[in-house]
Predict the 3D structure of the following.
Amino acid sequence: MNIVIAGSTGYAGQQLTSLLVNHPNIKKIYLGSSSQSSSTYDAIYAHTKGIIFETLLDSDTLLTPSFLEAHQIDCCFLALPHGMSSKYVPDIIDSGALVIDLGSDYRLEDAENYVKWHGVHASPHLLDQGVYGLSEFYSDKLGGTKLIANPGCYATATLLAMLPAIQAGLIKDPLIIVDAKSGISGAGRQASQAGLFAEAAENIRPYKTGDHQHIPEIEQTLSQNQSSEVAFKVMFSPSVVPMTRGLLSAVYAKIDHTVDMAMLDSAYNAAYADKPFIRLLNQAPCTKNVRGSNYADIWYKIDHRTGTLIMMCAIDNLMKGAAGQAVQNMNLHFGFEETVGLGQMPLYP
């Protein structure tokens, strides 16, 4: 099959490129970059020297119906800045290609809610037509759509940590508290003062506390997967920590005294029994143990003293939090083995 990666020079885009260049079901990859078109890929990323040397095309050229049809494109990965995908997606869908959008453009189903959190949308009529690509919970819907909205990195880790408990009805208190920390690559490749070594090193920097853009997709997914009618609200506190990649989400929820570990074990084992990238641990997860892989390490514990359920998930923000999950979704859509192209062991140490 033939694919397009628009935004291939960002961190998520280059991770996608690195994964898909060795995917056995990919015949040809066309790489796009609006900021560095006409350059060769290995001139931008020296680690791809002798491996990936295609000339980059501008996204406005790469994503036209004429290009997509002439080159028989089967799948377009959009690793573009948030808000940019929506102007290309209608034409891509009309060409017959699958869209996997790594941005936030199609994660929310309600147009009014989208405007509240993200602003104006270029193709709001498609908001309710996409499938939210949290692979472990929506795999049965991925094959029948032409638009997959890849979840945000924080949303992925947070939802994987708590959805089994939510689905089993073990959490009834509406307030969910999330404390999440991510490596600096989650901010993207563009230069910024906050990304300078002197600013980022030896520093934990909270940002967008209580109003991060991943909050509405977390709440939307909770409402779709609960067994009761609780109106869950998420208090979300993200921070950037001085490491390149990795993300740890710690989730806290009040539970009834009747909930015990046997009930939790039953819920989590049932939810993840046949999920190849989920690893249930008996101790708190560490980001180093998933670095460079598509694994999600999950742990949970009841703090009986405070009546709180503690749930944690560690992922690589560029893999399970972005490119790895996008490839996983492509595999599921086209009926490939779910793990194809994603068999990397975590990088250690």
Q: What stands out?
A: The mean pLDDT is 96. Residues 2-150+322-334 form a domain with the Rossmann fold fold (CATH 3.40.50.720). The radius of gyration is 20 Å. Residues 319-334 form the longest helix (16 residues).
